Amino acid sequence: MKEQDGKSIIGVAIGTILFMELLTLGGWGIAVPIAVIIYYILILWQSKILMIKQNITTNILLIPIAMTALCFVFFDNTLLKSLNILFLYGLIVLNTSQQFGINRFEFLSFRWFLELVPIGILMPLENMGQPINVVKKEMKERSKDSNNVIFKVLIGLLIGLPIVFIATILLMNTDVAFESIITLIFEKFDFDLMWILQRIIFSIIIFFPLYGFFYGLRNKKDKTNEQKEKNKIQIFDFIIVITVTSFLCVVYMMYCLSQLTYFISAFKGILPADYTFAAYARKGFFECIPLGSINLLIIMVLTLFTKTENSKKKGNLIKGYTSYLVAFTLFLVISAFSKMWLYISAYGITIMRVYVSWFLIVGCITLLFIGIKTYYSKFKLTKNIFMVFTIMFLGLNYANIDYRIAEYDAQLYKTENVNTISAFDELSNSALEPLIKISDIDKDNTKLIIKKYENRVYGKTKWQDWNVTNYKAREILENR
């Protein structure tokens, strides 16, 4: 066994136990930043084994990684927690791949981000069997006789344990005396069979992919291929693509002219006849998403995969059509946002309306960046979109939107008698303080929802789940 393989197995085994207790069997509060710190301790250990010097100046992704991890300490929004897990995992994988030099493409380029799939998903799965191979190699290096004995004992244990477990359960069900003996043994030695089985199963699930990831870091040595990054794959014929795009642009123009009054009424604060505010906002959003997706796909085909044969005339034509599609999509997004704002003005803010509005704003910025890239080739499109997305995503977390929404809706309830109590049902424990203010006015209608908040606050008993929001909510409930 190589020394680095042995050390890596020990490190991953320790990390597996800690990650299992902190996250899998713990909670998604303060445990998350602790788990991130443990992961980077393992990474530094791995770097030391491989004699790779980590450069803090190029480790810029540690800033959003730290800020995302701390979101679990300060806030308790369930949806944002789920998105934070995905975002954090992606950042950590990309950061690690950059530090170990296994990401083949330019930092923060489009194809650099695409490496998340082969490195963060496929590599751990492909190398899951490596711990077994390492142990096998070690056994071959030892004497053959002792090798066979150890190997056969391990096989016997693996086969025998589940058979003995099933047989014991069956015998306990058929014989009271035997059941009493087994129960006495477990009580005497304080065995919790489910506790043991649970940890064995989760240890296996975590250990093998985690070791596979670390094994890949040690053995994958592909270097950056900047030339490959710059090569443009052009697979679509120019005339065919332009013909399709032309037809689509004509249809869009006819659609805009026929629906002009409908589109711009939201800008004037006017609700069209036969529409409710909710239906108007929903229609705007669901018009925007499919058409926007089609347009972005066509823009990618035009700019990345269409054969221009270095013709300036063809290049200018592609720029013109790209600008048209960007402008039309931008118009749809802004129109959808104006409809949503009209809806919010009439009925207050809910968490879903905030998410939709945030998504539309990010869409607007992305389209503007695509427009800039069309006429300024040196503009780093992917890098700038990533930076804006990261800032806005962290801003969505750190703005504590649940509390802001709750305050706004509580004020709307008190001053304008708009019934916004149902909006609190979707909010996290950050909304408890404004909800208590409403309950001072209307105890009957808020009684059930406050009870729901109480169950949520007192239901989190594990220290791994601790965060500032739940701590403050508990204080508010105790001081009522």
Automatic annotation (TrEMBL):
Transmembrane segments: 12-44, 56-75, 82-102, 149-173, 193-217, 238-264, 284-305, 325-344, 350-372, 384-401
InterPro entries: DUF4153
Species, as recorded: Clostridium gelidum
Protein name: DUF4173 domain-containing protein
Superkingdom of the organism of origin: Bacteria
Pfam (any one): DUF4153
Alphabetically ordered keywords of this record: Membrane, Transmembrane, Transmembrane helix
Coiled coil start-end: none
